[in-house]
Amino acid sequence: MKRVNFISGEVFGLPNIKSAKKRVLVSEARNARNKADRSALKTVLKKFEATAVEGNRTEAEGAYKVAVKAVDKATAKGLLKKNNAAHKKSAMTLKLNKLG
After folding, report:
1. Cα–Cα distance, 64 to 88 (Å, whole number)
2. C-beta separation of 67 from 92 below 8 A
Protein backbone atom coordinates (compact mmCIF):
# COMPACT_ATOMS: atom_id res chain seq x y z
CA MET A 1 0.00 0.00 0.00
CA LYS A 2 1.34 3.37 -0.98
CA ARG A 3 1.24 6.29 1.40
CA VAL A 4 0.89 9.78 -0.03
CA ASN A 5 1.71 13.07 1.65
CA PHE A 6 -0.78 15.34 -0.10
CA ILE A 7 0.80 18.53 1.22
CA SER A 8 4.19 17.96 -0.38
CA GLY A 9 3.04 15.48 -3.04
CA GLU A 10 5.54 12.87 -1.89
CA VAL A 11 4.72 9.23 -2.45
CA PHE A 12 6.13 6.74 0.03
CA GLY A 13 6.35 3.18 -1.15
CA LEU A 14 7.04 1.58 -4.48
CA PRO A 15 7.65 4.18 -7.20
CA ASN A 16 10.97 5.97 -7.56
CA ILE A 17 10.35 7.51 -10.97
CA LYS A 18 8.71 10.92 -11.08
CA SER A 19 6.04 9.91 -13.61
CA ALA A 20 5.17 6.80 -11.59
CA LYS A 21 4.73 8.93 -8.47
CA LYS A 22 2.41 11.22 -10.40
CA ARG A 23 0.40 8.26 -11.64
CA VAL A 24 -0.10 7.14 -8.02
CA LEU A 25 -1.37 10.59 -7.05
CA VAL A 26 -3.66 10.84 -10.07
CA SER A 27 -5.03 7.33 -9.68
CA GLU A 28 -5.78 7.85 -6.00
CA ALA A 29 -7.59 11.11 -6.77
CA ARG A 30 -9.63 9.44 -9.53
CA ASN A 31 -10.36 6.49 -7.24
CA ALA A 32 -11.70 8.84 -4.55
CA ARG A 33 -13.84 10.71 -7.10
CA ASN A 34 -15.26 7.48 -8.54
CA LYS A 35 -16.02 6.17 -5.06
CA ALA A 36 -17.90 9.37 -4.20
CA ASP A 37 -19.84 9.26 -7.49
CA ARG A 38 -20.80 5.61 -6.96
CA SER A 39 -21.94 6.41 -3.43
CA ALA A 40 -24.05 9.34 -4.65
CA LEU A 41 -25.64 7.12 -7.31
CA LYS A 42 -26.51 4.45 -4.74
CA THR A 43 -28.07 7.11 -2.50
CA VAL A 44 -30.28 8.39 -5.32
CA LEU A 45 -31.38 4.85 -6.20
CA LYS A 46 -32.20 4.13 -2.54
CA LYS A 47 -34.31 7.30 -2.36
CA PHE A 48 -36.32 6.14 -5.35
CA GLU A 49 -36.78 2.70 -3.78
CA ALA A 50 -37.99 4.29 -0.55
CA THR A 51 -40.55 6.49 -2.30
CA ALA A 52 -41.72 3.57 -4.46
CA VAL A 53 -42.26 1.44 -1.35
CA GLU A 54 -44.31 4.21 0.30
CA GLY A 55 -46.70 4.15 -2.64
CA ASN A 56 -46.88 7.91 -3.22
CA ARG A 57 -47.02 8.20 -7.02
CA THR A 58 -46.14 11.91 -7.32
CA GLU A 59 -43.08 11.68 -5.06
CA ALA A 60 -42.01 8.49 -6.80
CA GLU A 61 -42.22 10.19 -10.21
CA GLY A 62 -39.97 13.01 -9.01
CA ALA A 63 -37.48 10.56 -7.52
CA TYR A 64 -37.66 8.50 -10.73
CA LYS A 65 -36.66 11.48 -12.88
CA VAL A 66 -33.73 12.28 -10.58
CA ALA A 67 -32.63 8.64 -10.50
CA VAL A 68 -32.77 8.20 -14.28
CA LYS A 69 -30.72 11.36 -14.75
CA ALA A 70 -28.16 10.11 -12.21
CA VAL A 71 -27.92 6.72 -13.96
CA ASP A 72 -27.41 8.44 -17.32
CA LYS A 73 -24.68 10.66 -15.88
CA ALA A 74 -22.96 7.65 -14.31
CA THR A 75 -23.07 5.90 -17.67
CA ALA A 76 -21.57 8.91 -19.42
CA LYS A 77 -18.76 9.03 -16.84
CA GLY A 78 -18.07 5.33 -17.26
CA LEU A 79 -19.21 4.23 -13.80
CA LEU A 80 -21.89 1.98 -15.29
CA LYS A 81 -21.96 0.05 -18.52
CA LYS A 82 -24.71 0.79 -21.01
CA ASN A 83 -26.66 -2.44 -20.51
CA ASN A 84 -26.39 -2.18 -16.72
CA ALA A 85 -27.85 1.33 -16.88
CA ALA A 86 -30.66 0.15 -19.16
CA HIS A 87 -31.41 -2.69 -16.72
CA LYS A 88 -31.59 -0.30 -13.76
CA LYS A 89 -33.84 2.16 -15.61
CA SER A 90 -36.12 -0.64 -16.80
CA ALA A 91 -36.49 -2.01 -13.27
CA MET A 92 -37.28 1.46 -11.93
CA THR A 93 -39.87 2.00 -14.67
CA LEU A 94 -41.58 -1.28 -13.83
CA LYS A 95 -41.73 -0.35 -10.13
CA LEU A 96 -43.13 3.08 -10.98
CA ASN A 97 -45.78 1.60 -13.28
CA LYS A 98 -46.85 -0.88 -10.59
CA LEU A 99 -47.82 2.07 -8.37
CA GLY A 100 -50.63 2.85 -10.80
Report:
1. 11
2. yes
In this predicted model, what pLDDT tens digit does every residue of 56-90 receive, in sequence order? 899 999 999 999 999 999 999 999 999 999 999 99
Predicted pLDDT of residue 15: 80
Question: 3-state class of 56 per DSSP?
Answer: coil
In the chain, the N- to C-terminal Cα span, in Å, equals 52
Question: Which amino acid is located at 33 in the chain?
Answer: R
Write down all domains in the chain, each with its CATH number in brackets: 3-99 (1.20.58.110)
Identity of the residue numbered 59: E
Question: Cβ–Cβ contacts within 10 Å for residue 21, how many?
Answer: 19
| pTM listed for this prediction | 0.78
